[in-house]
Write the structure tokens for this entry.
Amino acid sequence: MKKILCALSIFFTTCAQFEALEIVSISPSNGEYGVASDAAVRIEFSADVNRETLERNFSLKADGNPVAGTHAWESNRAYRFVPHRRFANGARCVMELPRSIEDARGNSMEKDVISEFYVGSDLVSPRVISSSPPCAEGGIIGVSVDISTIEILFSEPMDTAATSSAFSITPDVAGYIVWHDDATRLVYRLVAKLEAGRQYRATVSSSAKDASGNPLEKSFTLVFIAGEDFTHPDVRGGFESGTIPPPYFDDAAINRGVSRFSSISVEFSEAMNTSSVESAFSLKPATEGRFSWSAGNAVLTFIPHKAFSMDTVYTLSVASYAKDAAGLALRNGYTVLFRTDAADSLPIYVSRIEGSFDAELEPFTELYGGGAPPWPLLITMGEYQAPPRAFNPHDYTMKVYFSNAAGPVGIDLYSLVESLLIELLDGEGSPCITDIVLTDDGTAAFITFDGLINIRNPETPAPALYRFTIAGGISGVNDAHGNTMRQSFVCEFKDSN
């Protein structure tokens, strides 16, 4: 009987050593919501724990990602796991303890333990309620190019920094974000106009978050097209002001016969943005002037401050970045050439010179018939007569004719008077101009010289050489329209038999 009692005592002692390790409490508890983001996990066991087995096998994941932290012990039976970082709001945290964890006597747990908890009290993802412009499947058209804001309304207050970073607009339009209505309304204030006919996409990605840290339910994209007019404007043509097109200037040739005193117009297919067209307009050679608009801003007229240059080819251009009233750019740029060679815009020249030693009684004979003057021009001063005489033997009259490419042209007498010069190059004498008279139509001038050497005078048998100049250029002789000679007319003459 004594042997039986001894055996039973050994049996019960051995069974007591194999009692399973149990968890007395877990915090946060299984299924708990509203856990603080800085919470630590605390586990209390029924017996002293083999710390190495617990620290090696403990597992905590937040939304499937391992959580790093520090192992801390309040006692041999109370364990704490302190995460290195705060949990994200709404995170689902799962803690796993395998049955292989042992107490100090080597007893393990009966089964694996899994416990989960949820961080934060707000676990509902925010969503977009409305927008301005409104959102529609496939996008909308007709949004004004002058809108000042794009607005997006959320279902709850948002994390403004995260949501602002999640906002984008393509193509890019300069602007900035402000928040209204307790951080539920994102407002993008535009500081530039939209481009007519262009499609825009305003997007808030799923990285946007509410104030509790919950991500946006799904990304949001607003698609819209700016403007209602999607037809790009064209240049119908350029023309000389004062005419009624068509026809317009030929853009494949130099358009001739334009008056230098005209203005130049360009007609467009529709009303234009005046400032953009004026910026895109150019003339070469450069010409200063002002702009005038007509026909409901469909016709631009360039009015030069002073007349165009005579007989000059100009290049008129309107660059393709000129825009219509809706903001659409020209379909193509426009370039045309015109020449200011109308009859009132041509340079003048000396076309012929005749001479006579007695303008009242003797016929005029041709001295110069165009082209380069011969050297020297040979004149005849007439028979020398001592006083009293029928004519002054030292006078000579030249009749100078003026023309342009279109024919004879009347000149301005005052400009002619200021443009004449007679010089002695070789010999004796004191030449001067004593009289200048225009013909009735102003196309020729009688110019009388005095003080010339008449070789028929026995006292001055050697001829003198003279230079006669009619000044050209901007300060020289000009016609009634202000046209001048391109260069001075110069000839040298002397008396001959």
User: Anything to note?
Assistant: The longest strand covers residues 396-404. Helices lie at 2-16, 51-57, 160-166, 274-280, 413-417. Residues 1-16 have pLDDT under 50 and may be disordered.
